[in-house]
Amino acid sequence: MFPAAAIPELRRSLLAWYGQQGRDLPWRQTRDPYAIWISEVMLQQTQVQTVIPYYQRWLERFPTVEVLAIADLNAVLKAWEGLGYYSRARNLHRAAQQIVTEHQGRFPESATAVEALPGIGRTTAGGILSAAFNQPQAILDGNVKRVLARLGALPLPPARAIAQLWQWSEALIDPDQPRDFNQAIMDLGATICTPRKPVCDRCPWSFACAAYNTQMTEQLPLREASSPIPHKQIGVAVIWNDRGQILIDQRKPEGLLGGLWEFPGGKIEAGESIEDCIRREIQEELGIAIAVGDHLISVDHTYTHFRVTLHVHYCQHLEGEPQAIECAEVRWVEPTELSEFAFPKANQQIITAILKSKVQ
Ligand code: SF4
User: Fold this and answer.
1) Catalytic residue numbers?
2) Residue 275 backbone class (left: φ over 0; alpha: ψ -120 to 50; beta: rest)
3) Rounded distance, CA 238 to CA 223, Å?
4) What is the four-CA torsion angle of 274, 279, 281, 282, rounded to 10 degrees?
5) In ligand 1, which atom is closest to the CA atom of 217?
6) Which domains does the chain have, with CATH numbers?
């Protein structure tokens, strides 16, 4: 725990550091709660440098909450393509509709109303309300958890001390400059109090930091013992018909990657060959018979809780009309039309391989 008597100096020193060292980020140029909300959601699981071009393109494409609310979901997912965690985009779309119907298009200003919107938890609500309206609402994103866990030498992994960390964040926030304070502590975590090798000799909080003053910065925050993440092997089919078109399917709206388009396939069962898996999955999911042909590409991808390897084969449609048995929709498309659909990141490499093999 850091001493309560140190709080005024912690605020003052952090704000002074921020005045000199704070990052110049596009969403700090605005007080528009809509734009700030978009940035906060994009930043939930994505690095700042990746977010910047997406944020700028998004505001050109959907400049207001009204424009977003009436947009087609496929266009929203397309604008999000490559950012991952697509439920964020679907929630933005739904929340925009809610803001228009329930709040007359005005972004709500109470924490309760903001947290009632899809995809907005307490820290995102705090980030938006402090940045847009200068409200003294605490935040607790990954950077802030790490900084506070070190500052107060938290004796538990952060995930097991969330209430304590919220209490520290609330105690520290500067009631007169909450906007700058929250931005500053996020910057401190991103640029000085980094996960590995924090730069304590340039930190405005080293004078009160329990981790620094007990040489514990390498050990804190404490980590949970981690178990290895599962690795799934997936057979994937790029199915051609005799008109030179490829079959793609749209995932159901709920769940991982919901609403995105993909090449059909599924998990390889124990003892099953890739070819047998592909034939079985396509019969079960789309109700058609195919001939499995050459291997096109294998793609590795890591999600938060598991890894996948996609084993992709070219296939030929033999018989049957494709049906959307396990998905929302199926379509035959020209290879050149693939870029019009929103695909998960792992599928982008497959598209590149298809287009390359067509050129050769
Ligand atoms: S002194 Fe070091 S460990 Fe402590 S808050 Fe600053 S950068 Fe983080």
Assistant:
1) 40
2) alpha
3) 42
4) 130
5) 3
6) 11-213 (1.10.340.30), 231-359 (3.90.79.10)
For residue 349 the two structure tokens come to 């490499």
Is 179 one of the annotated binding-site residues? no
Q: What is the pLDDT of residues 15-53, one digit of tens each?
A: 999 999 999 999 999 999 999 999 999 999 889 999 999
Mean pLDDT of 60-77: 96
**Percent of the chain beyond pLDDT 70?**
99
CA 157 to each of CA 140, 167, 228: distance values in angstroms, whole numbers, following the listed order? 14, 16, 18
Q: What is the reported pLDDT for 278?
A: 97
Task: Check pocket membership of 205 for ligand 1, CB cut-off 6 A.
Answer: yes
| pLDDT of the residue at 227 | 75
Query: Amino acid letter at 332?
Result: W
212 touches ligand 1 (CB under 6 Å): yes
Residue 360 has pLDDT above 60, yes or no: no
Give the pLDDT confidence score for residue 359 in this predicted structure.
56
- Tokens at 219, concatenated: 């050990």
